[in-house]
Amino acid sequence: MVITLLISIGIISLLSVFLAILMVIADATIGNYGTVKISINDGSKVLEVDGGQPLLRALNQEGVFIPSACGGRGSCGLCKVKVVSGGGDYLPTELPFISDEERKQLIRLSCQVKVKTDVAIVIPEELFLVKEFTTVVESIKDLTHDIKQVTLSLKDPTEISTKAGQYIQFVVPEYEDSDESVYRAYSMASPPGDSKHVELEIRLVPNGICTTYVHKHLKEGDEVIINGPYGEFYLRDTERNIIFIAGGSGMAPIKSMLLDMEKKGSTRKTTYFFGARSKRDLFLLDEMKALEKTIPNFTFVPALSEPQAEDKWEGEVGLITDVVRRMVSEGSNSEAYLCGSPGMIDACIKVLHELEVPPENVFYDKF
Ligand SMILES: Cc1cc2nc3c(=O)[nH]c(=O)nc-3n(C[C@H](O)[C@H](O)[C@H](O)COP(=O)(O)OP(=O)(O)OC[C@H]3O[C@@H](n4cnc5c(N)ncnc54)[C@H](O)[C@@H]3O)c2cc1C
Ligand code: FES
Q1: Which residue from 25, 75, 226, 244 could staple onto 272, CB 3.0 to 4.6 Å apart?
Q2: Residues 161-178 pLDDT 10s
Q3: What is the per-residue pLDDT for 41?
Q4: pTM score of the predicted model
């Protein structure tokens, strides 16, 4: 009885695998979708593209750049667009990133939707302003044992218009550790006032495609293709107090915002909590101390969670959430900008909630 059942399950599983392989082969070989149309924003722009490819790639090839941090692997959830018609059914790979509300609004992951028939989509108008830039590496500097500062000089076009806190996508060419070109998101550390340069702070991720390329292969004088700017993580123009919280390379967008505030003569009460494990993970301390002198009402609070004896650290100690809780008494008139790992940001959001910072005034970029 049990053996018969097991044999039946085995046969059904084999048949399912066989059918799935057949469908993939059919899609790749017989599936000739010809040229299809992508109608954007009620036909204000219509693109003709080769059918059968992911919507994200088809748009990128036509110079319409959609945010993405994972290069179309379906793991970052950033490439959302509204697909009004022609997108087919939701794929299981999209569902973890799409809320019920977004589903009602026909939001899809553009890297997972294939354009097999004519498609109608809606995207924010500002994405038409995103451009591709050829840049040259002007300098590469070690900020810590695993973070490099990379300054790119814009070659074509020669200027970029950004808001402090936004990010670009860095195109990694094929190289010995990657047999395909990929792109990854990096926040700009440079201030919007410097339209001719883009400064990045890139932390090495072990075996990471882009960060290995930047840390081990990229040289001064090399050409780099980027596209941007992207993102809603920028400083709001209000009179509220500001709480910045960052860890590691999360410093990048906050530095850009501070330089922008310095230039604009901001007098808003601002506290920047910067968390690191030990002293070797801290960087730009002198620049931050200098900004305390040039931005009125600005305080920089570096904190170490695991200071080493040789660090001789006399500053704040503890997880950054504990330091924020200790130093901020009440936040109802504050807005907060958080940048770092998803775990750090989720923990900070809870603390800010306890401190009564209104949720609509909490902005973040999770790396
Ligand atoms: C809006 C935005 C802005 C960003 N800005 C910055 C920035 O200013 N500086 C910066 O250094 N990074 C930034 N990132 C992260 C960056 O886009 C890449 O994800 C990161 O550099 C890893 O890329 P990679 O190609 O080297 O690794 P991948 O080849 O993508 O990943 C290799 C492996 O490492 C894992 N992995 C990926 N990312 C991390 C991580 N951060 N920590 C641990 N493991 C990881 C993956 O799961 C995978 O298994 C930003 C991301 C977003 C979404
Ligand atoms: S590009 Fe990352 S999920 Fe689509």
Answers
A1: 244
A2: 999 999 999 999 999 988
A3: 96
A4: 0.87
Radius of gyration of the chain (CA): 24
Instruction: Please check whether the domain covering 35-126 is classified as CATH 3.40.190.170.
Output: no
DSSP letters along 211-258, please?
A: HHIIIII--TT-EEEEEEEE-S-S---SSSEEEEEEEGGGHHHHHHHH
Among candidates 273, 281, 279, 229, which has minimal Cα distance to 254? 273
Q: Is the CB of 98 under 6 A from ligand 2?
A: no
Which residue stretches of the chain have pLDDT < 50?
Answer: none
The answer to whether the CB of 188 falls within 8 A of the CB of 254 is: no
Give residue 6's pLDDT. 63
Q: What is the 80 CA–ligand 2 centroid distance (Å)?
A: 8
Question: Looking at domain 130-230, which of 1.10.10.10, 2.60.40.420, 3.90.550.10, 2.40.30.10 is its CATH number?
Answer: 2.40.30.10
Query: Contact at 8 Å (CB) between 315 and 302?
Result: yes
Best mutation site among 162, 169, 172, 186 for ligand 1 pocket (most ligand atoms within 8 Å of CB): 186
Predicted confidence (pLDDT) per residue in 85-141, tens digit:
999 999 999 999 999 999 999 999 999 999 999 999 999 998 988 999 999 999 999
CA 351 to chain centre: 23
Q: Where are the domains of the chain?
A: 35-126, 130-230, 241-366
Nearest atom in ligand 2 to 112's CA = 4
pLDDT for res 5: 61
Which pLDDT belongs to residue 366? 87
- pLDDT of 72 reads 87
Taking CA atoms, 33 is separated from 29, 54, 93, 281, in Å, by 11, 12, 23, 52
Of the candidates 200, 194, 188, 195, the residue with the CA atom closest to the CA atom of residue 140: 200
Domain 241-366 falls under CATH 3.20.20.70 = no
Which residues lie with the beta carbon below 6 Å from any ligand 1 atom?
A: 69, 76, 167, 184-187, 201-203, 205, 207-211, 249, 252, 365, 367
